[in-house]
Amino acid sequence: MTAKYHRILLKLGGEALAGPGGYGISPEQADFVANKVKAVKDLGVEVALVIGGGNLWRGRAGLRHGMERATADYIGMIGTVMNALALQDALERMGIVTRALSAIEMRAVAEPYIRRRAIRHLEKGRVVIFAGGTGNPYFTTDTAGALRAMEIDADVLVKATKVDGVYDDDPQKNPDARKFDYLPYIEALNRQLKVLDATAISLCMDNSLPILVLNLWQADDLIRAVMGETVGTTIGK
After folding, report:
1. Does the pLDDT at position 129 exceed 90?
2. Beta strand pairing status for 46-51 and 127-131?
3. CA max distance for the chain
4. Could you tell me which residues are beta bridge partners of residue 211?
5. Which fold has domain 7-236?
6. What tens digit of pLDDT does each residue of 159-180 get?
7. Residue 141's closest CA among 103, 91, 97, 94?
C-alpha cells in the first residue's frame, strides 16, 4: 500500500514528552514519540515536527506575576529547543538521521532555521524538528506548526493530541458529545476550538492546508491516517 501523504508536519504539545505530573522531559516518552515517527517514516513519508514547550514552561504563570508577555514567550521558545534536542536524541538512537532547526539561533546545539535547508534535509530522508516557535513572541507553536507546514509544502498538518478528534462538547464531561469526522475551517473558527488556536486555523484556511486532529496515543491512528483511513477529525474547505 502507498501512503496518502508524501510529506507531513506533525505538531506535538510539550506534554507529549512530559514525565509524571505533566512536567519535565521523560526519556521514555521521547522514545514513545520517536517510535511513532519512525513507523511513519518507514512508509516512505517525509516527516517534520513542531513541538511545544508546555512541559517545561507555561507563560501564563509568568504573566500572573507581572512578567512581560514577550519575555514569557521567549522562555517558552527556549523550552521548545530543549524538547527538540531530547526528541532528536531519541530518533537518532533508533538510527533515524534528524536535524533540529531553531528559529532562535543557538548554533552550538541546533541549525538556524532556513527554509531551503529544511526542505533539502527532508528530500534527503532526514527527519526535521522545528524549534523556537516562529521566533517571535505572541505566536503559539500551533501557529508555528501551520507556518512551517506551508513553508515546506507539507500535504497536511497533523495536530497530535490526547483526544481522538474534535467534539461539539468536552467528551470527558459530556458522554453525549458528538465527534466530527470533518469540519470546514470557518466552522472550526466559529466554534472557537481549544485543540488548535484561531491564528493557526486561519493561516491554514487562507492557504488551503488541511488539518488532521488525532490521538497520538491511540494504537495505530497516526499510521492509519497517513495511509488514508478516516481517523480523527479533518478540518478543511
Report:
1. yes
2. parallel
3. 55
4. 157, 235
5. Carbamate kinase (3.40.1160)
6. 998 888 999 888 888 888 899 9
7. 103
Average pLDDT over residues 137-158: 97
pLDDT given for residue 1 in this prediction:
67
User: What's the mean pLDDT in 180-185?
Assistant: 95
Mean pLDDT of 27-41: 96
Give me the amino acid identity at 175: P
All three cell numbers of 197: 488556536
> Sheet of 98-102: strands edge to edge?
111-112, 98-102, 127-131, 46-51, 7-12, 156-161, 211-215, 233-236, 182-184
Cβ atoms of residues 167 and 177 within 8 Å: yes
The label of the residue with cell 526519556 reads 27
Strand partners, 214: 160
The Cα-based distances of 121 to 49, 97, 130, 143 in angstroms read 13, 9, 12, 22
β-bridge pairing 166-167 and 179-180: antiparallel
Q: Please state the rounded mean pLDDT for residues 183-212.
A: 93
pLDDT score, position 221: 93
- Residue 48, phi then psi, degrees to nearest 5: -120, 155
Q: What is the DSSP letter of 122?
A: H
Distance from C-alpha of 135 to C-alpha of 158, rounded to nearest angstrom: 21
Joined together, the cell numbers standing for residue 145 give: 506548526
